[in-house]
Amino acid sequence: MNFLKKNYGWMIVTLIAILPLFIIINMINIDFSNGLTITLIESAASDGKTTLEMLYHISGEFAIRWMTAVLSCTPFFILFGINNLYVRQSMGIATAVWSFIHFVIFLVAEGFLETFTQVNYIAGFIAILILIPLFFTSNKKSMRRLKKNWKKLQRLAYVAISLSLLHIVLLDKTWLIYAVIVGLGFIIRIPVVKDKFIKLRLNKTRNKLSIQ
Ligand code: HEM
């Protein structure tokens, strides 16, 4: 029971992150009879999209949603005083895994060299490269080992989200909602704004305690 109380946050994140994988698995055929062959099940997509378009759509959307969510953790803490390192780390891992899945789909469908044919793919590719060290240092051991440099390294996430948004803007897909959420987060992090929110929150807590 104590274990569940301590760990339910990251467990829920992991479950939500894993569920869409089942949709993806239902869209492909994996055949080991002659080496490894992966084929797409063409009738599996909906919304007038081909299966490949749907695979890009699902993986890309989950990658950007998790990236937006993980970048909203600090503003959420500033506003509400709630912080959970394990939840944040599992969101970071979900971001990286969904981005890697998205890229692997592209590699299988188009090939590696195709990555360098469009500015939007190159932007996405640099974002993926940034996610690699973030993925491997998203744990307490790395935090302890890297000390101050860990925070510096994590700041690369700002570059990753900017490049990912550029990728989506250039593709002319849904980007505004993510840009607004991330943009508001950046405003809340500005030291003067952050201090105001924290003071307001602490005053509210003090008032509540004095009423009780
Ligand atoms: C090497 C890196 C990447 C490549 C080659 C790539 C490639 C693609 C391709 C081919 C599409 C479909 C375009 C279309 O339907 O016209 C797409 C869509 C998308 N990508 Fe990427 N991508 C990369 C990285 C990323 C990253 C890092 C993110 C976010 C974290 C991302 C998020 C998205 C989103 C949200 C869409 C739109 C999905 C939709 O609504 O249909 N991509 N990407």
TrEMBL record:
List, for all copies, the residue spans of the domain called Ferric oxidoreductase: 84-163
Q: How does it sit in the membrane?
A: Multi-pass membrane protein
The regions listed as transmembrane in this protein's record are 7-28, 63-86, 93-113, 119-137, 153-169, 175-192
Recorded GO MF terms: FMN binding; heme binding; oxidoreductase activity, acting on diphenols and related substances as donors
- Gene Ontology annotations for the cellular component aspect, listed alphabetically: plasma membrane
- List keywords of the entry alphabetically: Iron, Membrane, Transmembrane, Transmembrane helix, Transport
Q: InterPro entries recorded for this chain?
A: Fe3_Rdtase_TM_dom (IPR013130), MsrQ-like (IPR022837)
Q: Where is this protein found?
A: Membrane
Q: What is its main location?
A: membrane
What PANTHER family does its record include?
Answer: PROTEIN-METHIONINE-SULFOXIDE REDUCTASE HEME-BINDING SUBUNIT MSRQ (PTHR36964)
State what protein this is by name: Ferric reductase
